[in-house]
Amino acid sequence: QVQLVESGGGAVQPGRSLRLSCIASGFTFSSAAMHWVRQAPGKGLEWVAVISYDDGSQKYYGDSVRGRFTISRDNSENSLFLQMNSLRIEDTGVYYCARDDFGRSSVAVPGYFGCWGRGTLVTVSS
Amino acid sequence: EIVLTQSPGTLALSPGERATLSCRASQGVSSNYLAWYQQKPGQASRLLIYGASTRATGIPDRFSGSGSGTDFTLTIGRLEPEDFAVYYCQQYANSPLTFGQGTRLEIK
Q1: Is B96 close to A63, i.e. CB distance below 8 A?
Q2: Dist CA B49 CA B90 (whole Å)
């Protein structure tokens, strides 16, 4: 069945780095744009980043993470990544990977999320 | 940025009742590019509705979406015990993608 499984979360001090991974199965990963979405404790959902389906030629970020986070993918391994640098306390939360099901050729304006993982928790604290 | 405001924040109903959840946008959502999701603790979130009114694959027909422009509604026809969860709307008309703050549907 279609599945997304995130990993790599943990506790880290402010200013440090962390790399999240997401393994996809049950669908043609190389045909889907992919996203990271996060949720601070007790709060709502916030879109973080999107990457195009191909070799990741298109990448876009939310204002709060642009310049600090980098999204990437390895289609040969059905994997999505999020490199998070210069972490801040406000980056704390559960990070979800999600598949874009809208199918626009450009992800400059991405779509909606047809499939989600269960998330991985990132805690930034001194 | 399109700001989405959901109401009510919490809705307490009994199984078998009808639920009506609202999502209002700060500006028009072109082409009705609005989706609804269900979130339960420890589970993957689930897409319910996209394009404001199209049910996603496998979603029961007690879930329906309506609206256009700035006002959208998710209706759950007869609540089942498994429907008690948090519901989010999301617009994909403009970048950045934005979500409403959520409506918690709880058992009365």
Answers
A1: yes
A2: 10
Q: Per residue in A23-56, pLDDT tens?
A: 999 999 999 999 999 999 999 999 999 999 988 8
Residue A75 gets the label, from left (phi > 0), alpha (psi -120 to 50) or beta, of alpha
Check A118 against B44: CB less than 8 A apart.
yes
What whole-number distance in Å separates Cα of residue A36 and Cα of residue A117?
Answer: 10
A27 contacts chain B (CB < 8 A): no
Burial (0-12, 13-18, 19+ Cβ within 10 Å), A38 = buried
Beta-bridge partners for B75: B20, B64
- Could you read off the pLDDT of B46-77 as tens digits, one per residue? 999 999 999 999 999 999 999 999 999 999 99
